[in-house]
Amino acid sequence: xxxxxxxxxxxxxxxxxxxxxxxxxxxxxxxxxxxxxxxxxxxxxxxxxxxxxxxxxxxxxxxxxxxxxxxxxxxxxxxxxxxxxxxxxxxxxxxxxxxxxxxxxxxxxxxxxxxxxxxxxxxxxxxxxxxxxxxxxxxxxxxxxxxxxxxxxxxxxxxxxxxxxxxxxxxxxxxxxxxxxxxxxxxxxxxxxxxxxxxxxxxxxxxxxxxxxxxxxxxxxxxxxxxxxxxxxxxxxxxxxxxxxxxxxxxxxxxxxxxxxxxxxxxxxxxxxxxxxxxxxxxxxxxxxxxxxxxxxxxxxxxxxxxxxxxxxxxxxxxxxxxxxxxxxxxxxxxxx
Length: 337
Prior knowledge:
The chain contains eleven helices and 13 strands. It has a single domain (about 1-335), classed as Aldolase class I (TIM Barrel), CATH 3.20.20.70. It has an eight-stranded parallel beta barrel with strand order 3-4-7-8-9-10-12-13, surrounded by six helices. The protein is an alpha/beta fold. Helix 9 (about 295-305) links the parallel strand 12 (about 290) and strand 13 (about 310-315). The protein is globular and about 50 Å long. The mean pLDDT is about 95. Helix 7 (about 220-230) crosses helix 8 (about 270-280) and helix 8 packs parallel to helix 9.
C-alpha cells in the first residue's frame, strides 16, 4: 500500500522532479519502510553469482546515491551510472518525459552525473551485498578520438568496487557517441579496455568482467558485426539494448514528438530482435543481458526466450513499482524449474 500511494503521488510531479525525489527517499532511512525479501533463483554469469536474474538498468541511480534503498527492493543486481570522468550537468531541462498512453519514457538527459569520484565515494560508504554493475561513459566535451582515455580512466577508478563494468557507447543523447560502435572505433576502444582489465587483474588479483551496451537502431548486419567485434575482443558480455530514436507507431501522447531516447513498451519487440540476432552470432554460452520494454513478467520471459540470460528493468519499474521485481522473479523461477 505504501508503495502504491508513493508511486501515485510521484506520478503527479514533473518526471525529473519525481525521479530526483525518488532517489532522495531511497537514499534515506525512509527506504527501510519498504523491504522485499529477494526471491532466490540463483544464476552465475561471467564468474559472478546473482541471487536472481532481475536487475535495475543504468540511468536510474546515476551516482550510486540510493544503492542501500534499492537493495531492499529485491533486485538480483543493480547497475549504477552512467558515470563520466568529470561531473557534467547534462542537457537543458526539461529532458525527461512520460508517455503514459504508450507506457514509455523519452529522455535526453545527456549523462548528467556528479563524476566518477563521487560515485566511488558513495559505493565505498554504502556497499551492499547485491551485485553491482557500474556503467561508464565519456564526457560530452571529450572528442571521440580521445574517448578511450575517458573509458580507461573510469574503469581504473571503479573496477575494484564493481562486480562488472558496462561500457556505454550507445546512448543517443551524447552527440556522436554511437559512432564508437563503428568497427574501427570499437576495436580500438575494446583493445585498450581489455589491456587495462588484464593489467588490473594482475595488479589487484581481481578479474572484473566488462560488458558492452549496444543500441537497437542499427541494421541487422551492423548488429552482427558489433556483436562479433565485442566477443572477439575478449569482452565478457553484451547488454541489448539502450533506448531507441525510432518514434514511429506511437499512440497519441502529449510528449511523443520530444527528441531523445525512447524506452518502455514500444521498445520491447525491437530489443528482442536484437537479442535474437546477437545470440545467433555469439553462440549459446556468451552472456547477454536483456533490457528494453519490460512492463510485465511475460515481457521479461520474452527476453529469456529470445536469448537473454539476465534481464533489467527501468521504465517498467517507474510505471509498475517494486512489485514488478517480485512478479518477474516468480514467473522466471516457475519457468526454469
